[in-house]
Write a structure and sequence with these properties.
Elements lengths: L3 H31 L3 H13 L1 H6 L9 H9 L3 H17 L1 H6 L1 H7 L4 H34 L6 H28 L3 H23 L18 H5 L3 H27 L5
Helix pairs in contact: 1-4, 1-5, 1-8, 5-8, 5-9, 5-10, 8-9, 8-12, 9-10, 9-12
């Protein structure tokens, strides 16, 4: 079902982008873990009091009393939502519409491989790349939390939180892959695969500010990712993860079907 030659090529072609995103994430994760101390918490509390609306918009209004709550506030409200999103958008567009746009898809289709085998390989590589990226960030946070603050991180809650994060990015990547498979050119693909997720994030940021804006959360996919419920393993968080998985799976299935049946003007 997969073309391992193409898979190996994508691994080598993506390693630079992957390394840059991972390095930036490592830097911020280590910095956030290091910031978990009473003196810094007081500073962050004062910052929150100074700009309450802005901090709430990015999900940073509640510092919490434990390491897991602290990490949830400062990593999962912005950093681990946006940086993996950048990686997903760039990779999803490169894997399909990028080949079509530069003419390389003609060479791939000319090989004995079927369209299904080609697009399934690209879809698998996208999901695997996201999985490896998030697994690496999870291990980094666990290792440095253990070094700096031994036995303070609730591993069960933290792993559940990161599983939820994967399902969120799985759903978003499915959408981006669908756009890449169905767009007529690279510019259009980037416009939709970038614009819609960012619009959803901005809507989520507005809903976080509370008041009458809170109802906006029903119009964004990000409302299905709820760190506070995942950490407590609230039953409602699991059907939300199921919804994210279903969205992602349907998008990938539709993307594969669209690519296999579409007319390619190569």
């Amino acid at each position: 079902m997969m073309n391992f030659t193409l898979l190996k090529h994508e691994m080598l072609a993506t390693i630079k982008l992957f390394s840059i995103i991972l390095a930036v994430l490592m830097l911020y994760i280590i910095s956030i873990v290091y910031m978990y101390n009473p003196e810094m918490s007081n500073t962050l509390n004062k910052l929150t009091e100074t700009m309450p609306e802005l901090m709430s918009a990015f999900g940073m209004s509640n510092i919490g009393n434990s390491l897991i709550e602290f990490l949830s506030t400062y990593l999962y409200g912005f950093l681990l939502l946006v940086l993996p999103l950048v990686f997903i958008i760039m990779l999803a567009n490169k894997l399909v519409i990028g080949y079509i746009d530069n003419g390389s898809m003609a060479y791939l289709i000319a090989t004995p491989n079927t369209r299904f085998k080609i697009v399934f390989t690209q879809a698998f590589f996208l999901v695997a790349s996201i999985s490896v990226l998030l697994t690496a960030t999870t291990l980094i946070a666990i290792i440095f939390s253990g070094i700096l603050f031994p036995n303070e991180l609730d591993l069960s809650a933290f792993l559940t939180l990161n599983i939820g994060l994967f399902f969120l990015h799985f759903a978003i990547s499915g959408y981006c892959f669908l756009v890449s498979c169905s767009s007529k050119d690279l510019r259009t693909s980037y416009a939709y695969s970038t614009g819609i997720p960012i619009l959803f994030y901005l809507i989520q940021a507005l809903s976080n500010m509370g008041g009458s804006l809170e109802k906006l959360k029903y119009f964004t996919i990000y409302s299905l990712f709820t760190p506070e419920k995942l950490m407590t393993q609230d039953s409602s968080s699991f059907w939300m993860l199921g919804a994210l998985f279903l969205i992602g799976l349907l998008c990938y299935m539709l993307a594969i079907r669209v690519f296999v049946t579409r007319d390619l003007y190569l």
